[in-house]
Amino acid sequence: MTDADADADRGGRLGLIVPSSNATAEPEFRAFCPESVTVHGARIALESVTVDELDAMSDDAARAAELLGHADVDAVAYACTTGSLIHGPGFDAELEDRLAEAAGVPAVATARSVVRALEALEADRIAVATPYTADLDERERDFLEATGVEVAAIDGRGIAANTAIGELTPEDASGQVLERVGSVDDLDAVFVSCTNYCSLAAIEGLEAELGVPVITSNGATLWDICGAAGFVVDGPGTLFESEQR
């Protein structure tokens, strides 16, 4: 068997860097990846979604990417929304470059993936639902608006413990969007933030109800990393009908 034959037999591999307390990203990725693509996780320490813990977590990301590179993955994702925007615009792109160098393959970071998704959807005015505390909501608003997106509304649940965020359901996400931000006029899209907020399964129902595209942190990251790796993925909602990079 040649090296090329061996590569074909193994299918595709995605490397996923997740906070240690995240129990949602890997199952959501696996649920929507093609059967030929496997997901391989690396965990970095985070218990509470706070500025200090998010900041410390990003320091370990390059080592995690390097170790995923040992598994011969095709691309790497840093699957944490606030962790990839914590230092404002530009940090997300710098983080992608650092991870790509460490892993030796293309890398994406969730905050940048969300921006790419909104650009693909030509979404200029959005509403955002998060599980976060108010200070992180404001950082997220500042980050998104610095990219040129108008955040018409943002609503957070005020949760810091990441295990508690991971207990939220797609029904929780739907209810939060419909009751708190979905009624805002003239929206181009709705964004459900946080890779530990189980919400991919809510997308199609929300889009049918609202009549606008809905993206989630894991959905945007999956769409983006598969584009970077050259894989075709049939995920939920309008975003996955858009051209991947």
Automatic annotation (TrEMBL):
Pfam families in UniProt: Amdase
Signal peptide stretch: none
Domain of life: Archaea
Designated name of the protein: Asp/Glu/hydantoin racemase
Taxonomic path: Archaea, Methanobacteriati, Methanobacteriota, Stenosarchaea group, Halobacteria
